[in-house]
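User: hey, got a sec? need Cytochrome c folded
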Amino acid sequence: MNLPSSKALIKENQEISSWRIFLLTSATLILLIFFWRMGDFKQDPFITETLSIQGDSLSGSKLFKINCVGCHGISAQGFVGPDLHEATQEMSDKKIINQVIRGLTPPMPSFEIEPQSMADLLEYMHSLN
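Assistant: Yep! Here you go:
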């Protein structure tokens, strides 16, 4: 009877363990990415309401000048905060709303804003393109 050596068994077990670790790590990463992306699809009532409202660019411009010029500059060209001229092309409206109401990237503060005002601000941002 030809039995494998203990070195061969150890090597085989190490290979199996390596594959198990690889598969477990891959599955974990896939699940993390899946759940992270699911956060993009949650229905926030504020966002849903804001997106259902037609904004007014002129009102949004006034709101911008009151609240945003200190960081984004008088013509949204960027200062402390980024240039916003292409923000609506680079980010979805939902992500822009999240950024404004939650201040996701410091030093951006979060703002308490009514849905109509947020729709106005969003419309103004679209007019910057």
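Quick note: The domain at 45-127 is CATH 1.10.760.10 (Cytochrome Bc1 Complex; Chain D, domain 2). Let me know if you need anything else on Cytochrome c.
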